[in-house]
Amino acid sequence: MSEIIFIQPVMLWLLxxxxxxxxxxxxxxxxQRCDLQxxxxxxxxxxxxxxxxxxxxxxxxVISAIxxxxxxxxxxxxPHPKLIARDGxxxxxxxxxxxxxxxxxxxxxxxDSAKASIAQCVESLEDHRVGLVVxxxxxxxxxxxxxxxxxxxxxxxxxxxxxxAHGGTRIGDAxxxxxxxxxxxxxxxxxxxxLLSDGGDQxxxxxxxxxxxxxxxxxxxxxxxxxxxVGARIPVADGSSDYMLYKKQEVWSKLDGALLKNLVNSxxxxxxxxxxxxxxxxxxxxxRISSQSETQQLAEESVINYDEIFHWFIALGxxxxxxxxxxxxxxxxxxxxxxxxxxxxxxxxxxxxQSIASDKAQSYYLQGNAEYRDGAYDxxxxxxxxxxxxxxxxxxxxxxxxxxxxxxxxxxxxxETSYASxxxxxxxxxxxxxxxxLNRSDQDAAINSELARMERKKLKLTIEExxxxxxxxxxxxxxIREMLxxxxxxxxxxxxxxxxxxxxxxxxxxxxxxxxxGTKQVSTLIEDYNETYxxxxxxxxxxxxxxxxxxxxxxxxQKLSLDLYxxxxxxxxxxxxxxxxALQQALLALPQDPQGDAAPSEEGEDxxxxxxxxxxxxxxxxxxxxxxxxxGEEGEMNDSDTTKMDLDSIxxxxxxxxxxxxxxxxQEMQQARQAAGSKKQGTPVEKDW
Length: 689
Known about the structure:
α4 links the parallel β4 (90-96) and β5. α11 (339-373) runs parallel beside α13 (394-413), α13 (394-413) runs antiparallel to α14 and α15 packs antiparallel against α17. The strands form 6 sheets. The chain has a 6-stranded mixed beta sheet with strand order 6-5-4-7-8-13, sandwiched between helices. It has helices at residues 18-36, 40-47, 54-72, 110-124, 149-157, 171-182, 206-215, 257-265, 282-290, 310-326, 339-373, 377-388, 394-413, 418-438, 443-493, 498-503, 505-533, 545-564, 569-589, 595-598, 659-677; strands at residues 4-6, 50-52, 75-88, 90-96, 129-135, 139-146, 191-197, 218-225, 232-233, 245-246, 249-250, 252-253, 270-276, 296-308, 330-332, 615-617, 620-622. The protein is built from 21 helices and 17 strands. By secondary structure, it is α/β, with parallel strands linked by helices.
């Protein structure tokens, strides 16, 4: 029998009103009978032909009142565990607590205004980890990354100028400490630093801090606080003046917006918001900037959910009230309804809805088992999911969840990629965990959990090996690409006029020989690449087949050019031009990403794991699989952007070109290469605030 609980049990005290209903109803019925006695014996005689329905009306009223009160207490049945993942980002707030932050151009002052904005923002970040670093001339971590917002707010409330040992402003040192201490793990991305300061950095570590931010893919949001034009004086608690003095002159502090803006512009991802003395809503600012940002899984919680059934009690109560209104006060004896008929009708109303839902869940379950045996594991998983939505019994919940884990694992064997297989194995692990949460002594789920753990480990190792091989392949391709780019530049410079060759034939010969030697080295690298990553495959069918052909053509044309450059200069120049064109085509034919060409076989080996036990329901069998219940992060493949030069757009110098034209075109080619190679990775955050 399913466990039943009441989410609002305090409402059950209203059941004490039920006796009051009975007493009031009986008093009204007694007065009614006294009034009827005034009609005399004739009326009583005529009334003897009827039976009173008031007891039944009272019973309907009492039952309807009880059902409505039970509905108010929110009854729930069918406990089942549910995993809740909490996804978010790591956000570190860096607060300037130097004495200049005590200036009162923002009320009550810059520091208190910034603290209030941080507190408001943190209270709205429910699924983020937050940390706090305060700095002035030195820096201090007053709150490490945590999801406990109460602890963070308590630490924030206690911060002030005395939270650090030295005065001044050293933003660079504070950024380095946050990167080294709070973001020291190997995971990059999903991180933000919110800097609130009035500027005025005195450190020399700005450039090092920017490198750390870019290397670890940390986004910087700088908030400039204070008046940038006039500034404000800095109050002091004691002394000869109410404000800070320097050489007997009052110190005025202004917002150094230029420093904060330059700091943000040096970062790959960042934004600068000069709030100044205006009202600041840090919550809206941060949410607008991070609305399109990716998140990571920070925590995973398991809770027990119940299916609420209060609506059935409300429907029954209203139906009984309607039935009471339809039941007459008296009824002729032949037409009287027996208590058994009414009781059977009430029981039917209570049992029928749950029975229908249970039948639908059973139907989906049996359909899923049949699809599983036929090898349609994706369809079986869908049927099992539909069965769970139909509120099955506790016993059936276990069998459906268990077989759903089996279907996910079987489907992982036929997935197209290792990443898809890993995702399906993770889902099967989660389902086995739910079974173990319902019954920790379930041996079938425990065994399958261990087997799935082994399969997941094997898949992760396979993915890691694939990524390492792809990284090595990309590095080798990049080396070939750089050599081809250099050879194209050199060959373009080796096509001067005939007079230049006659004036210095030995020098031209050396340059052309250098290009031929480099082309030979590229050809050797291509052969080594094919031998390393496509061993046993003919070079004519590898991804580098076109590049290999064009490089071979370039070698042949370079040899002919060397043989003919003194005797037949025009033919030598033509072969040189054809060699340059072949090198260009070789570079264009070079694959941009080896992932799709070099990925090894991703199919898992069947038969390595032991066969687990089976689960059955009404004679239908569901085969066991593998499973375990640990959360894991799926790896992401972030391919580096590859720079591609449009070499076809480079015109070769004709025979009539002057030396100045050749030099100018060579410079244009060099500028095009520099512009193509200096593309900045990452998408900067818009700064149109």
